[in-house]
Amino acid sequence: MLSTSLVLGLLAVFSVPGSGCGTQEYRTQAGECCPMCHQGTFVQSDCTLLSGTRCRPCDNGTYMTQPNGLKKCFPCSSCVAENGLFVWQKCTNKSDTVCGVSNGFFCKSPVGDTGCSMAKKHTHCAAGQRIKEPGTHRTDTVCENCLTGFFSHDGLTCAPWTICSGTQVKVKDGDPYSDVVCSCSSRNTFEKLLLFVWLCYICFFV
To answer: What's the sign of the alpha-carbon dihedral 141, 144, 149, 152?
Structure first.
């Protein structure tokens, strides 16, 4: 049989719906204050005059990070490989999944110091540009245009235009996307032809 002091104490807690609950209590739908469930558990049934809050461990695939008065735990996050994420730390009943960022991606929505909820592929620099700063797991690639006199057709590095030699002529100017095109001069070609004919003449008649 309940003691008089215990009954009076219980009545004091349950007879004032709408009053403020303690820091480790939650308010039920009936407006009563009940003790919270611990981290990793949720409320199976609210407290009564005769019993405290009944708590139940989070089911597989769910978690709860703090004391609570909720009727279910939160679903664990998924790390989708197609979105550039992988499982860095598995989900437990007390903590959510921590997703890491795959190579070639950077995090758009960081979670804490190491986690990520959304990643994006690194930008590929266009022709006429070079990589100024390579992308990391936290930052995107930084591109910059090639300076005059340089070109890039793959968007990786800028190479200097070719300087045609004295025996060549420039048949196409360089631009940010392609190199200078050089060709042998017609005079040089003619001189080589005369030399070939002269050598053949000497070999044939000498």
So the answer is: positive
